[in-house]
Amino acid sequence: MMSSKIIAANFKTNHTRRSSAEYIARLDSFMAENGVDTPVYIFPPFTALDSFDIKSGIKIGVQNAYPTVKGSFTGEIGLEQLDEFGIDTVLIGHSERRHILKESQEFISEKFTWFKERGFCIFYCIGEPLEVREAGDDAVRRYLVEQLDGIDTRYENLILAYEPVWAIGTGKTATPELIEKTHATIKALSDRPLLYGGSVKPANIGEILSVPGCDGALIGTASWEISSMVSMLEIVKS
Ligand code: PEP
């Protein structure tokens, strides 16, 4: 029984308002009818935010938000928009925002502190690119420590996710040995729950969640199809 594991689904720029609502309703029924009590977090796109009628333990979070109540920040959303739907969970530091959207560690830590001060549950992602992994364990440790710069690693509502960049959306999953070793490194820096993310799917979730020091999974691609998400939750439950 692995039901205390945390499972999170990052939709990224996938799903519409309608398909997100259908997905959440189907997942909610599945969880309620099958007594799935593992904590499940869904991060849909902004356009899908709504006041969902949820019977199970599903929590809805956002993939990003700007550290402001409201204001002139074109293309961003702030606390006022989140409060409208009772959202108090935010993903910060995802590698796609670090590398594609060029968010700096300084800005990421500012965002972290702002949402921490408002009591948000923060899913905070760290992970090294391939060249750092190839440079060895010390280089990986230094890189991860830098990604925690300015972050309160003891924050009670913090959930960490180790997501090696070379494993995200590539189909290349880190081996259980590598996950165990890197999680031990991160656990020495923070005692908060630590998820693994990077090409988690029905075929490997059981093995990954059995890795010592792995408290759950943050899933992108394999979470987008409801059937695949349900298969993974069945494995988590059994
Ligand atoms: C992610 O983007 O957080 C992620 C883990 O993606 P994928 O599962 O597709 O590798």
Give structural attributes.
8 strands; 238 residues; binds phosphoenolpyruvate; alpha/beta; TIM Barrel; 14% strand; single chain; globular; eight-stranded parallel β-sheet
Helical residue percent band: 25-40%
Mean pLDDT: 96
Number of strands: 8
Q: Please give the count of helices.
A: 9
- Strand order, largest beta sheet: 3-2-1-8-7-6-5-4
Number of domains: 1
Span from first to last CA?
6 Å
**Which structural category do the helix and sheet elements fall into?**
alpha/beta
State the shape: globular
Please identify the top-level CATH class: Alpha Beta
Strand content: 5-15%
Query: In CATH terms, what is the fold-level topology?
Result: TIM Barrel
Give a description of the structure.
The chain is an alpha/beta fold. It has one domain (6-237): TIM Barrel. The chain has helices spanning 17-33, 79-83, 95-99, 105-117, 130-134, 137-147, 176-187, 205-209, 226-237; strands at 6-10, 40-43, 59-60, 89-92, 121-126, 158-162, 194-197, 216-219. An 8-stranded parallel beta sheet has the order 3-2-1-8-7-6-5-4. Helix 1 links the parallel strand 1 and strand 2 (40-43). It starts with 5 loop residues before the first strand and ends with a helix. 35% of the residues are buried. The structure holds phosphoenolpyruvate. Phosphoenolpyruvate binds next to strand 8.
